[in-house]
Amino acid sequence: MSHNSFGHLFRVTTWGESHGPAIGCVVDGVPPRIALSEADIQPFLDRRRPGQSRFTTQRREPDTVKILSGVYQGQTTGTPIALMIENTDQRSKDYANIADRFRPGHADIAYHWKYGIRDPRGGGRSSARETAMRVAAGAIARKILGDDIIIRGALVQMGPHGIDRSRFDDAEIDRNDFFCPDPLAARLWEAELDAIRKSGSSVGAVVEITASGAPPGLGAPIYAKLDADLAGAMMSINAVKAVEIGDGFAAAALRGEANADEMRMNPDGSVRFLANHAGGVLGGISTGQPIVVRFAVKPTSSILTEVASVDAEGTEVDIQTKGRHDPCVGIRAVPVGEAMMACVLADHWLRHRAQCGEFVPGGLPITQM
Amino acid sequence: MSHNSFGHLFRVTTWGESHGPAIGCVVDGVPPRIALSEADIQPFLDRRRPGQSRFTTQRREPDTVKILSGVYQGQTTGTPIALMIENTDQRSKDYANIADRFRPGHADIAYHWKYGIRDPRGGGRSSARETAMRVAAGAIARKILGDDIIIRGALVQMGPHGIDRSRFDDAEIDRNDFFCPDPLAARLWEAELDAIRKSGSSVGAVVEITASGAPPGLGAPIYAKLDADLAGAMMSINAVKAVEIGDGFAAAALRGEANADEMRMNPDGSVRFLANHAGGVLGGISTGQPIVVRFAVKPTSSILTEVASVDAEGTEVDIQTKGRHDPCVGIRAVPVGEAMMACVLADHWLRHRAQCGEFVPGGLPITQM
Amino acid sequence: MSHNSFGHLFRVTTWGESHGPAIGCVVDGVPPRIALSEADIQPFLDRRRPGQSRFTTQRREPDTVKILSGVYQGQTTGTPIALMIENTDQRSKDYANIADRFRPGHADIAYHWKYGIRDPRGGGRSSARETAMRVAAGAIARKILGDDIIIRGALVQMGPHGIDRSRFDDAEIDRNDFFCPDPLAARLWEAELDAIRKSGSSVGAVVEITASGAPPGLGAPIYAKLDADLAGAMMSINAVKAVEIGDGFAAAALRGEANADEMRMNPDGSVRFLANHAGGVLGGISTGQPIVVRFAVKPTSSILTEVASVDAEGTEVDIQTKGRHDPCVGIRAVPVGEAMMACVLADHWLRHRAQCGEFVPGGLPITQM
Amino acid sequence: MSHNSFGHLFRVTTWGESHGPAIGCVVDGVPPRIALSEADIQPFLDRRRPGQSRFTTQRREPDTVKILSGVYQGQTTGTPIALMIENTDQRSKDYANIADRFRPGHADIAYHWKYGIRDPRGGGRSSARETAMRVAAGAIARKILGDDIIIRGALVQMGPHGIDRSRFDDAEIDRNDFFCPDPLAARLWEAELDAIRKSGSSVGAVVEITASGAPPGLGAPIYAKLDADLAGAMMSINAVKAVEIGDGFAAAALRGEANADEMRMNPDGSVRFLANHAGGVLGGISTGQPIVVRFAVKPTSSILTEVASVDAEGTEVDIQTKGRHDPCVGIRAVPVGEAMMACVLADHWLRHRAQCGEFVPGGLPITQM
């Protein structure tokens, strides 16, 4: 029941502070004889890496990952895989003026109250820097899932501005600085975020993650439901305040008929769902339809605007956060959300194999789902 | 990593099917020497019990809970507490016609694919009947938390109709059949749900749970964040499709300034938050402000309206669900959501005590929070 | 990390006190579609049941097990299996005189100090009665393991008298009241235990459990080694004070050559071990050889002989325990040890399947092991 | 349920292979504001370090530990503590000739069968090198336990030669190369082990670990009994084949009277045990008496003597292991056993605090224990 581990059979334990010598993780439970090298992980880290556009923090870390164990002659051995990234571009002096002052909306005061001590440099343990290790672990999870399961994230809302679903184009996602699938929205956001960034403010966002090609049967009711684990996983990402599956909150407004994902048979004997209100999960178990999760990221709490706060001595202060921050931390949450999806699916893939073994279709052919 | 357990130090394992001989749970980790009897649990079960108004399923179960272990001479002994409710009003024949047919939007087909077998009577394990044991466990969790932490749930939206926040009145919640804090909304919903019920349809809802009086320091970053655990807990409730903390999805639309919960000092030396966008949780740790969670419940999938489906032989069928169902299962989710809040807080209360011992304020007086 | 659960993927949670209304357990993680009924479990309970000879406690419980969930139409469904045995022959008044006095060598004082409260009737939670549920769970574990894995326990020492290994005969085990594989030893023990019983004393014993036919590959280094899990499982049985695998303590006296389990090839291409000093486990992983565990059971602490003690008020008392007790509790530990072996193997069988899938022989044929 | 983690609230995850770039661990759950630096850990590593006498492997590693996270300004912060030791003296070529051959009595073939792949260099993951991280974690555990709990290990038997208990002298333990408390035995062992070493053979040993000053109440029945956790922990150490608590196997030969740890009151109102057959644990809970554990270490399987084996192609081979090995690996198991004792006690110290809070004596003063 470790505080810093997630997953059960695919189990990831992360460690490290933003301005410590390094951050790292241990990935345990990986099946043996999977080809794995740093080259399988690095591209995902590069997508998350800060400093790639003017819309993310200007901290510049190469974020070069090293595999320290668990791989022999290019293959996993079934033993724990330790990964490490050395920190290279810490500028801890930026944080001197907030060491004893609590940024409103930031974890500062909560850590202070819980532990009576905190490492204030770069946010210490509460920094989004920790998510680099989630991305690294996610790359290993993808190797377990194989190429048939496609996990794809996108920013579908920035501030109050959502995308136009009719223009949703997967190919656009990697063509702009926002992981935005709607090219027009991306252009509007660019202007808007420039203004926000220059004013020293920040803005929230909504991220959508879709996994296609996952088999039915992932998820273990009652308390390891796939959607419950996804909700917990996404909510554990820094600054996330809401998670929904499929229609999510919109389902509350529906009648039973409108929410029913009706079924018909395909000519090949497989089942065809006529809709996907459920977001690919029924009763906590995947149905083979695309698994769709959305989560809301609040605006970065570290802003230049002066806000009312207090310090560790109980003095009222007005606080401005200089440092280098993401004006829209939701952008970099896209690859993190993808990684969490991969980790949860890999965990449940192993869990399913433990209890149910190879897939048993129960007499019902399943394709096209 | 049991599939049917939740919590770690306050750990609940539930068992039972809707139409089996009984349902039950084992609650482990409860501190010794807490006064406990069935009378502490029964009132919470009575609130959740079906058949109390025309707006919930007409199955009539007394839901009388028995304590089978862990209590001696009216006090907990530190050993596992087993609770059991015998099932008395099963009408399994209602389900004969859906034994091999899959209700759209229901867990039927997912269980079928995962396990290759399922108990179709009353939904078997996937029935909301399981939530009775959550409510029972929640009653024990409340005994651990003590009387200073007040947990209160309410239905704040039914179908597309939300409450008017200006009329929010805690006292109203137990005066209507909806746990609705807005008396006018309750009256409107009554008419609407009567129509839905008579037409054999169903409707979704949004539930809000608030815990006041919880101390700061609950929650263990990074992967046992209080909000992540709450999200997983609420999403594990039957039919829930979305969860948010504090401002939730609305935070995505905000600027950093608007989202900052600014702080000032009270005359008595305690900290006063000027807002609660965060819903009482920062960095995964409680701040002492009210903890606010909302979740969306989809409409019951068991409806009289005929919907397109398939059966276990792969034949296309049109399916109507007779049985006895909740036209708005969100209503009875209110006490369930309260119970999950209580369980998560109790678990983290014990976790905090393990790692941090008695509360250490770190030099900052805390009152009024 | 429940205090009252064991196993991970095959997970058993037990509850109940010796003189409460019932004892029970929840077995989670059982694969679906395994034929299971009470008739699969009852015979194992009958072997452990008290009151079957004059050498076990005279408490007479039918120990009739009921399956309350997880089985539908004679097959497991993959949902948690709840088992319950009602207590029927409690004579709690026997314990009135020891309610506030601590039997030397018994858990009384330890529970008192830990929890500040305990249920003294029949030993409460610390009674060996709890082991009935282990035996029940073990019967389910055997269904997972299948018929090729044979688990067999025997009493190999009673007090200072060990068996003669040259007379070891599996068929003898069920022919005497001791589960003793050596008919001559059984006869000697009979006389000896009669004398011990009549004098109101008790005596220790050594139990040996062997599992034949288990495949290589069970066990997960470093901290879920098969032998480590077996050691923890056996040591958790009431009154057990020592555990050894294979040669155990005798290995300490050996040279490397003497301890080497040399290997040769069989004509059919399989590996043949020339010895089994290791007891079937190398590096924490099963080798396919018989898995051999022995454990020591101390003499029952509840004896008629007066011993020096204290009471809850701090008064010195001389204490005699009347009640009904096993003069050699090691006898009934035989089926319990078998059950623990079955549970640990089933857990690791599922764990192996999760990480490694179907067995991959790595190029080396394996038979005859 | 990670394979490579142990403990629950004091949770240690280790990683690394003998000849990889480094080995390391993550220690999670450590309370905040404990003074900690490398200087607290290094002395324990130095005790375990190879190459310090002719009686341990001649591999010479400085084993310099680095703290990579979880400590700020000399104090723990409550976040995970990552430790790392870089490997410097690997001589992997020594292992070329055993890469595809299986040393009898070694984990080689078991890893091969389980994973279908293994890192043969220096034993890979199955090397005793992993125990360095246990020792490091144990040093942190001791900081949690404080100075009143004294944990002390000793070698009490080497090969067939035990110590003379009447000469047991704690002060002797650090004066010889064997951690032997009996100076005469140490001298005899020296001659004996020189002969064994020169002949390229190896020998087993028995280690005894005692923890004095631990409070009553540690341990959580039924499945987290202190003695069960100690048994699992010790058995997980490389080459350990047996574990006993208190009188252990000798208890099997005793009568109830002989095994009773009788109690009397001290003048100050505390309880005085008149014996400690139980080894400080009753019913799985510590009693305040010294906790005494012994474990048997088999002889190192890597020996110069030629033994019959097979290779990965199924060819019969005669195998001699050159490399650098401990002639009596039991010697270096002493600090490892101490560390495991410390880790288990720290875990249960936190567990006790979670469930039972500050110690409640239940009316019975406890001192002198």
Fold and architecture overview:
Four copies of one chain form a homotetramer. Chain A is an alpha+beta fold. In chain A, 24% of the residues lie in helices and 21% in strands. The first copy, chain A, contains seven helices and 18 strands. A five-stranded antiparallel β-sheet of chain A has the order 1-2-3-7-4, with helices on one face. Chain A has a five-stranded antiparallel β-sheet with strand order 9-8-10-16-11. Chain A has a two-stranded antiparallel ribbon with strand order 5-6. In chain A, a hairpin with a 4-residue loop joins strand 1 (5-6) and strand 2. In chain A, helix 1 (38-48) crosses helix 3 (131-145). The radius of gyration of chain A is 21 Å and the shape is globular. The first copy, chain A, starts with a strand and ends in a 13-residue tail after the last helix. The interface between C and D is large, with 125 and 126 residues. Strand 11 of chain C pairs antiparallel with strand 11 of chain D, so a sheet runs across the interface. Chains A, B, C, D: It catalyses: 5-O-(1-carboxyvinyl)-3-phosphoshikimate = chorismate + phosphate. Chains A, B, C, D: NADP(+) binds at residues 48, 54. Chains A, B, C, D: Pathway: Metabolic intermediate biosynthesis; chorismate biosynthesis; chorismate from D-erythrose 4-phosphate and phosphoenolpyruvate: step 7/7. Chains A, B, C, D: Belongs to the chorismate synthase family. Chains A, B, C, D: InterPro entries: Chorismate_synth, Chorismate_synth_AroC_sf, Chorismate_synthase_CS.
